[in-house]
Write a structure and sequence with these properties.
heterodimer; A: 362 residues; alpha/beta; Rossmann fold; 17 helices; 41% helix; B: mainly alpha; MetI-like fold; binds adenosine-5'-triphosphate; binds magnesium ion; carnitine transmembrane transporter activity (chain B)
């Protein structure tokens, strides 16, 4: 992970959410006895939505939460702007404890600092596109003239200019979701919460919207929590990914870490089908030069193609097809290691060829 | 009790004195007339003013006005229907129009009070399960208890006349408005309310900007029901000396006068059709009207279009 000092915009500490009438007792029992999810359901008739979630998101980062249906993603993201109260734990946004805020500050924070896109879009059917987009400004009492200007900017940013006066049900699903996006960014918040914004759309439109979103996010530099149940989407969009299973954050890491070092079988199964070409870097699959030389004897590397440790497998494949030599990995002119064809193929498969020297010796 | 207690028929030998207890309330009401009287006078004044306003408008002007309102609210076809109904109403008898206006005044006063009382109650019931659970049996009672049961105590307390008539009408006509308001509020998609919350709306803003607008079609259906029920009470109300079409029917019954009965009865029906169609038109959602604003259609739309052209 990057070691550079970064500012945490969102920090969640030990969030638990237990649904049910006896959630407090259930929580106490969890604390004292460490009950499992099933025991909680049997003894207290409560459903565990989120179990001890701790993570932080840095400024400008896109943090993806990935998990199957019912794993508690929506429940978790609703804690960030306190749409639901945690049973235990706290959410801290830019140093402020959200759970300790009074109603007024909370509303101000929701309207001005957090934009949210909903899984179900949740547009207001009785309001035009423009009125929907300007909603957060309207509730803050921004004058009509300014509301209109700001809303139209947001509408333009999602390519919906010309549709301002239409009603949501006159728009296609993809357009509605773009209205949702425009509504979230209209008040120029620092934080975006996106709950499966593109899940209900067909693959082509989804890709389009992902592109729109990534462009916008690069321009606007917003701290984003992005929920998805699609690992490809998470990898495409996320700076870091958290994998969620049954309310637990199983693993948090960069896409490359998730794909190459899955924390458990569950994650491993998930990432098995993922293309490594754009994810895994040369540095991860290379064999140190000294080790290679030991096995093969000193080599003349003059004719070998050269790549940097940060280059993706995709680049290495391009280099490899043009030559019979292995690829030399060098940084700033200093040779570091070697990627053989075999290691490259294994890398694409997602398996690390750790027994390479022996295998080559056979 | 002088009778011996009979286990097989215990009820005959137990007297909880509920009848006397109710009589006690009546006595209390009669001794507190001085408190009730000013209130009564206030409402009487309101009703009289509504009636004299309605009577002051010449029938032709009133007819045109109602037709225009119908056109605006429900479109051209309904306007034509309303026109026909009103003409029939006027032709029924020389004094039919004036009687209808008297009845209309009572209905308007009742419905206004129903809205003032029922809308907040309905909103509360829509927001709170507890309140809904508490108010529901009361509404059931109001709707099912025969009017004659409360006719007597109301007259005892307030005396005969328009105000009693309005109160009796409200008791009968209020429930659907409360019920349907509650239903409408409950029917608003929780996702949309949550979105409003997520964007920082106050509970008040959520109510006025999201819940009420989205519940409006249902609430208007309730209003429509309330108006219809108010109209259906006019005959009973006329028993406590409320004038108007209902009184015609009542008098016709007393004298077996078929002609008068037809005037009263048909008059009520015509009025009912007019009010029903106009309020139903209001209740249609904007979507059915092609998402146009109300001022973009009907006579107002015509006028604005004409003004724009010039
Ligand atoms: N209000 C609630 N009351 C009781 N249980 C709830 C409530 N909301 C969510 N749950 C439970 O919490 C769990 C997680 O639900 P959640 O909606 O967070 O899943 P999700 O990961 O968003 O799934 P999806 O991808 O389908 O949206 C589910 O088992 C659900 O039954
Ligand atoms: Mg969800």
């Amino acid at each position: 992970m990057t070691k550079s000092p970064r500012e945490d915009v969102i920090r969640c500490e030990g969030i638990w959410k237990i649904f049910g009438d006896k959630s407090r007792q259930a929580m106490d029992a969890v604390r004292s006895e460490g009950l499992s999810k099933k025991e909680i359901r049997d003894r207290f008739d409560c459903v565990v939505g989120v179990q001890d979630a701790t993570f932080s998101v840095g400024r400008g980062e896109i943090f993806c939460i990935m998990g199957l249906s019912g794993s508690g993603k929506s429940t978790l993201i609703r804690h960030i702007n306190r749409l639901i109260e945690p049973t235990a734990g706290s959410v801290i946004i830019e140093g402020q404890n959200v759970n300790a805020m009074n109603a007024r500050d909370l509303r101000a924070m929701r309207a001005e600092r957090i934009g949210m896109v909903f899984q179900s879009m949740a547009l207001m059917p009785h309001r035009t596109v423009r009125e929907n987009v300007a909603f957060s400004l309207e509730v803050r009492g921004v004058p009509e003239e300014k509301r209109r200007r700001v809303a139209d900017q947001a509408i333009e940013a999602v390519d919906l200019t010309g549709w301002e006066k239409r009603y949501p049900d006159e728009l296609s699903g993809g357009m509605q979701q773009r209205v949702g996006l425009a509504r979230a960014i209209a008040a120029d918040p620092t934080i975006l919460l996106m709950d499966e914004p593109f899940s209900a759309l067909d693959p082509l439109i989804r890709k389009q919207l992902q592109t729109t979103f990534m462009k916008l996010s690069a321009e606007l530099h917003k701290t984003t929590i992005f929920i998805t149940h699609d690992l490809d989407e998470a990898i495409r969009i996320g700076d870091r990914i958290a994998i969620m299973k049954d309310g637990v954050l199983v693993q948090i890491g960069t896409p490359e870490q998730i794909v190459t070092e899955p924390a458990d079988d569950y994650v491993a199964e998930f990432v098995a089908g993922i293309s490594k070409l754009d994810l895994v870097t040369a540095g991860r699959i290379m064999q140190p030069l000294a080790q290679y030389a030991q096995a093969k004897g000193p080599q003349d590397t003059a004719a070998w193609p050269v790549a940097a440790p940060g280059d993706k497998l995709d680049t290495l494949v391009d280099l490899a097809v043009g030559t019979d030599h292995p690829i030399l990995i060098a940084e700033a002119g200093v040779p570091l290691g070697v990627v053989t064809k075999r290691a490259l193929l294994r890398g694409i498969q997602g398996r690390e060829d750790s027994n390479q020297p022996q295998a080559e010796a056979v | 009790m002088d009778k011996t207690f009979d286990w097989l028929n215990p009820f005959a030998s137990i007297d909880l004195g509920i009848g006397k207890w109710a009589d006690g309330i009546k006595g209390w009401a009669m001794s507190n007339r001085s408190v009730i009287q000013p209130l009564k006078n206030f409402f009487e004044g309101v009703i009289v003013r509504i009636e004299s306003a309605l009577q002051a408008v010449p029938p032709v002007i009133m007819l045109l006005l109602l037709v225009l309102i119908a056109w605006q609210a429900a479109g051209r076809r309904v306007a034509i229907l309303v026109f026909c109904c009103l003409v029939i109403l006027g032709l029924l008898a020389p004094d039919a129009w004036s009687l209808a206006m008297t009845t209309l005044a009572i209905v308007i006063a009742s419905v206004l009070l129903c809205v003032i009382i029922g809308l907040p109650l309905g909103i509360l019931a829509g927001k709170s399960d507890r309140f809904e659970a508490g108010v529901r049996p009361v509404l059931d009672t109001m709707q099912t208890i025969p009017a004659f049961v409360y006719l007597v105590p109301v007259v005892m307390m307030i005396g005969i006349g328009n105000v009693s008539g309005v109160i009796v009408t409200i008791i009968f006509a209020l429930p659907p408005l409360v019920r349907l308001t509650s239903l409408g509020i409950r029917g608003v998609s929780p996702a949309v309310v949550e979105a409003a919350r997520a964007f920082g709306a106050t509970p008040r803003q959520i109510l006025f900007k999201v819940e009420l607008p989205l519940a409006t079609p249902t609430i208007l259906a309730g209003l429509n029901q309330t108006i219809m029920l108010s109209l259906s009470m006019v005959v009973i109300a006329s028993m406590i000396s409320v004038k108007g079409l209902g009184n015609e029917v009542l008098r016709a019954m007393g004298r077996l006068d078929a002609g008068k009965a037809i005037v009263g009865g048909l008059g009520i029906v015509m009025l009912a059709i007019v009010l029903d169609r106009i309020t139903q038109g209001l209740g249609r959602s904007g979507r059915e009207r092609g998402h146009r604003h109300w001022w973009e259609s009907g006579p107002v739309g015509l006028v604005t279009a004409l003004i724009k052209r010039n």
